[in-house]
Design brief:
Two copies of one chain form a homodimer.
Chain A lengths: L1 E7 L7 H14 L6 E8 L4 E8 L2 H10 L6 E4 L2 E3 L1
Antiparallel strand pairs in A: 1-3, 1-4, 2-3
Pfam families (chains A, B): SCO4226-like
Protein name (chains A, B): SCO4226 family nickel-binding protein
Organism (chains A, B): Streptomyces triculaminicus
């Protein structure tokens, strides 16, 4: 499995409720694509949303987001990570 | 404390060793600014690096990164998060 960071732009003013609803919509169908959305963060002022997921491919991550009604603007495979 | 996502561009080909060294450089001085860098991820092919941190301000996060030799290109306060 690969880790991915995907980015949504243009979400100015997004609320905690909207973010939670969007995340639940992903979680409801993600297993069909072998994807798991671990976390999502949002900056309502710039309208930027980041989603951290693991899955078999960028395409699988985008299919879940698209079916849930919010395709990503960017998707990056995260080959490296530190904590 | 606020959560922040900062983004570095132009890091094509970054290695796990380089990412770990950069992260250690941040960790070594972060306390002086009341910042903690929780995780960092990198996509060597697009040259994008994401850093998740908590701290008192964007300026404090940027001061740590700048003193460690790698100022961020973007810093977003993450008012909202879900998992």
């Amino acid at each position: 499995m690969t880790l991915f960071m995907d980015v949504h732009h243009g979400m100015q003013g997004v609320s905690q409720k909207q973010l939670a609803e969007a995340h639940r919509a992903d979680l409801a169908i993600e297993r069909e694509e072998g994807v798991h959305f671990q976390r999502a963060w949002a900056d309502p002022s710039s309208g930027t949303v980041y989603c951290l997921s693991e899955g078999p491919s960028e395409e699988a991550v985008q299919r879940v987001h698209t079916r849930a009604g919010h395709p990503a603007d960017e998707i990056h495979p995260l080959a490296l990570s530190v904590s």
